[in-house]
Design a protein that fits this description.
The complex is a heterotrimer. By secondary structure, chain A is mainly α. Chain A is about 95% helix and about 0% strand. Chain A has one domain. Chain A contains two helices and no strands. In chain A, helix 1 runs antiparallel to helix 2. Chain B is an all-alpha fold. Chain B is built from two helices and no strands. In chain B, helix 1 runs antiparallel to helix 2.
């Protein structure tokens, strides 16, 4: 029957035409189209990947920043602490030195005073002795003459001492 | 006369194929309802299976056609 | 039909190609021809009309005007005993009953039921130059007919369309490179191309080989789809039942058969000839079945496309023919609505069959190039 009997003419033409069509389209249509689509997909892929990478980098950069900041803060804290310590120590030391110095000064002052005192005492003693001798000499000279005068003399002497 | 017998044959073939494809379609629906995310894969598999069953039916119909025309 | 001539005219105009061959017009009947044709004849003709419509023809019928067929003549090319002979099909003057003899290169040809025969020297009782046997089969010898028939012309139209769609699309890509979004025709075909590449080729053939076969699958898919759609168009340049012709689908199936088997890897042939993993007697049993299977797979492809498209055409024509079978104009709304419904389904089927053809081809190729890691 015609319907299920393939006709030679159509088979002949279809074979030729379809064969040529496949080859033509393969060379001039599918190859460029598929290649371009592939290229585009690759470039999109790459763009996505590099965006992802950039994001990763950004993240790690941020983490780095944070770390550096934390380090800096820690360092600052350490430095501040050190400074405080140093200051305290210096003050302490200065206090100590000052104390010692002061004590030394006080001691030497005391010694000086003692020495001065001693010297003064000696001087005083000497002067008292000299005065006494002087007075005694004068008294002895006047006594011989007048009692009234004697008294006046003593008063006068006393006035002098004063 | 041969023509009507051929028509009956084609009808029986269509019946069988209809049952078969209906079953595939139904199962595919169930599958998709159960796993909507696999809908694409199920559809492809369904179409392939339906096409294969349909092929069997078409053979029967072609045979019916041949019988019809031999008789005519 | 008699009551509403205008309506019937419109309807005829709508469906003309479907009824292109409704009434082969005998030459000597001209004086009797009227606008109305006896219904009885129409009723009997329905089967013939449908068969004529879905078969190939030597001229491209457009419509009947005043019972004169208006058609595009197509070249007839014959490979005869005396070499190639060609003339236009209009030389037969729309005769399809073997009455009009065309003489060329000293040979005489007649056309009978869209087949070209060497004419008998004398006309028989009906006036046709054909000798018949008892079962009314023509006995005359036939030259090898490689005419540009309606289907071949439709084939060329399809190919022309393919070229004017895809070459400009390819040009767009060549010109703009990969950095520009597709526009115009390229934006229309690109999703389909990507779909065929990813969902048909890649899924079924596998990553290693799929790019090699994608061009063939793309050509196949778009070619079948376009041919199907052209077959749905009621007027020229559509209207030919190209994809519903078994010769056409056979060629496509043979292409698939050859591509599949020429690319068959060792594993593929081993699975056919010496199935691994089963006992020897079973292997001996399986081998012939598998060998037959090589042929049945493309055979099913061939029959599927042919039967689907032909069946669709037959259903559409039958529904419209209801008007003439039931002899009433009042059934026409239902008939037309049903036809429109079937048409919509056919648009879907046109795509689906092209897709299935490409999908199964990819599946077969995938089976052939698959390499098993184990066994």
């Amino acid at each position: 029957m015609d319907l299920v009997t393939p006709g030679f003419g159509l088979i002949f033409w279809t074979t030729i035409a379809f064969g040529i069509l496949v080859l033509l389209l393969k060379a001039f249509a599918w190859k460029p189209i598929l290649n371009t689509i592939k290229e585009r997909e690759d470039s999109i892929d790459n763009a996505l990947k590099s965006a992802e990478k950039a994001r990763e980098e950004m993240k790690s950069l941020q983490a780095d920043n944070e770390k550096i900041l934390a380090e800096a803060r820690a360092e600052r804290d350490a430095m501040m602490k050190e400074g405080r310590d140093l200051r305290d120590k210096t003050i302490e030391a200065a206090k100590e030195t000052a104390k010692i110095e002061a004590e030394k000064i006080i001691t030497s002052a005391r010694e000086q005073i003692e020495l001065q005192k001693k010297a003064a005492m000696t001087e005083l003693k000497n002067q008292v002795a000299a005065l006494s001798i002087d007075m005694a000499e004068k008294i002895l000279r006047r006594e011989l003459s007048d009692a009234k005068q004697q008294e006046a003399l003593i008063n006068e002497l006393l006035e002098d001492i004063k | 006369m041969v023509g009507s017998i051929a028509a009956i044959g084609a009808g029986i073939a269509a019946l069988g194929v209809g049952l078969g494809i209906g079953k595939i379609g139904g199962s595919a629906m169930e599958g998709i309802a159960r796993q909507p995310e696999a809908a694409g894969k199920i559809q492809t598999a369904m179409i392939i299976a339906a096409a294969l069953i349909e092929g069997a039916g078409l053979f029967a119909i072609v045979v019916a056609l041949l019988g019809n025309n031999v008789g005519a | 039909m008699r009551t509403t001539p205008i309506f019937s005219f419109l309807l005829t105009l709508l469906m003309t190609p479907l009824f292109a061959h409704q009434m082969p017009i005998p030459h000597d009947d001209h004086e009797e021809v009227t606008a109305q044709v006896p219904e009885i004849e129409e009723k009997e003709d329905v089967n013939d009309v449908i068969m004529h419509h879905i078969s190939d023809a030597h001229d491209w019928h457009i419509f009947d005007w005043n019972n004169h067929a208006v058609s595009v003549p197509l070249p007839v090319i014959l490979y005869t005993e005396k070499g190639l002979v060609s003339f236009m099909s209009s030389a037969f003057h729309h005769d399809d009953s073997g009455k009009e003899v065309v003489e060329k290169n000293g040979q005489r040809f007649v056309k009978y039921h869209e087949k070209i025969y060497y004419a008998s020297s004398l006309a028989n009782a009906d006036g046709s130059y054909i000798d018949f046997d008892d079962e009314h089969h023509a006995l005359n010898a036939k030259p090898l007919d490689i005419s540009i028939t309606k289907n071949v012309a439709s084939l060329f139209v399809t190919i022309f369309l393919m070229l004017i769609i895809f070459l400009p699309a390819a040009n767009f890509y060549k010109k703009n490179g990969s950095q520009k979004a597709p526009k115009g025709i390229a934006s229309f075909v690109e999703p389909l191309i990507i779909y065929i590449r990813d969902e048909v080729a890649l899924v079924n053939i596998g990553k290693k080989h799929y790019l090699r076969f994608t061009p063939y699958l793309l050509s196949l898919f778009f070619f079948v789809w376009l041919a199907n759609m052209l077959g749905l168009m009621p007027v020229i340049p559509g209207g030919a039942n190209l994809t519903g012709n078994i010769g056409f689908t056979m060629v496509l199936a043979i292409f698939t058969l050859l591509i599949t088997n020429f690319n068959g890897k060792k594993d593929y042939w081993m699975h056919i000839l010496w199935m691994p993993g089963v006992p020897v007697p079973v292997r001996l049993l399986l081998a012939p079945i598998e060998i037959v299977g090589i042929l049945t797979k493309p055979f099913a492809l061939m029959v599927r496309l042919f039967a689907n498209m032909t069946a669709g055409h037959i259903v559409i024509l039958s529904l419209i023919s209801l008007i003439f079978v039931l002899e009433t104009i009042w059934v026409s709304p239902a008939a037309v609505l049903l036809t429109v419904f079937i048409f919509v389904i056919k648009v879907l089927v046109a795509f689906l069959q092209a897709y299935i053809f490409a999908l199964l081809t990819a599946l077969f190729i995938g089976q052939a190039v698959e390499e098993h890691a184990h066994h």
